[in-house]
């Protein structure tokens, strides 16, 4: 964006120029790299504003032009200009910016006197400006990445989910953030006016069709663990699944995201961002993989996938992120309450302990078992796994029919 096109006090808009964490051109162009707050001048040209009545007259009169000249500058008719000045109609954002320039009225001053905002022909909302980034907005953005929908042309917001608890949760969050009740509501779907979708879009939520979306996790969410937590919970509530088997020791928390093959790079980057965010809560997932491809009329669609199978990571997920009550939540609790489990972090620590031990001298299986406090059978199994990874090798036996002697591979 060229500086010559910026509002006259755009310097107050908080942005970052960091290029880490996979930011793409789409994020930069739609300002989803907002760190802290959203001002009225960051909204789209389709937004209209209502001003305090006395201030509205003052703004028009401060332009120091006769009304015929001012009408020409604003590209409106003379009668309509009078209606706007008298605050009979909401004023398009582009004309507010023009009035600010003609009157030398700072945008912050205008913002202090906005009574409500709306999209053209849509419902008005009266919320404090600037709109601060917070955990509720982070959760709503996460829901748009999941089961939410923002129209590409008319940016109305819809949310669809078969879990009634999630429907109620999103209704509460919209009411808290925008003061709005649903304009349409069914058992598994709620809909809201364009102004909601417009604001969420600018905070980084993807537009439909998401199958083609290049959107990554917004930078302002990546900069706060509290925001990350809200985003992750919403995303996993919608697109996550929990694997649990009563008869087998199968377990896991998965996240599946579908994109068009043309967005493969962005999809893998998005999942890597999720992986890094999870690790901030000591939740360790596998690397992102493409688990499935299938052909549609518009080409190849792909499903990107990450999973969490380490028991301690699942416990940490339940503790720090959690899921909303429902079938997935019930499965998660059953996994957490299991007593027999595999702990990847402990396994890594034990393997490192063994390798550190062998750096000093060669040890027998029995000696290693004594140090790590495991049975000889389990220790031999661990040693054979390290051998398969080319980390250790057998260098002899203590005696015939006795424990193997082990050393670091190649030493």
General description of the model:
Helix 7 (135-145) crosses helix 8 (164-178), helix 7 (135-145) packs parallel to helix 11 (225-239) and helix 13 (311-321) crosses helix 14. A hairpin with a 2-residue loop joins strand 8 (184-186) and strand 9. This protein is an alpha+beta fold. The chain has helices at residues 25-29, 53-61, 67-74, 78-85, 93-103, 107-111, 135-145, 164-178, 194-202, 219-222, 225-239, 264-279, 311-321, 327-336, 344-360, 365-372, 376-388; strands spanning 37-38, 47-51, 91-92, 114-119, 131-132, 148-150, 157-160, 184-186, 189-192, 240-244, 251-260, 289-296, 299-308, 363-364, 392-397, 404-408. The model is unreliable at 1-34 (pLDDT under 50). The strands form five sheets. Strands 6-7-9-8 form a four-stranded antiparallel beta sheet. The longest helix has 17 residues, at 344-360.
Quickly list its features.
single chain, four-stranded antiparallel beta sheet, 17 helices, 16 strands, elongated, disordered N terminus
List how many beta strands DSSP finds. 16
Helix amount, in percent?
Answer: 40-55%
DSSP strand content:
15-25%
- Which structural class is indicated by helix and strand composition? alpha+beta
Radius of gyration: 29 Å
User: Which word captures the global form?
Assistant: elongated
Q: For the largest beta sheet, what order do the strands appear in spatially?
A: 6-7-9-8
End-to-end separation in angstroms reads 59 Å
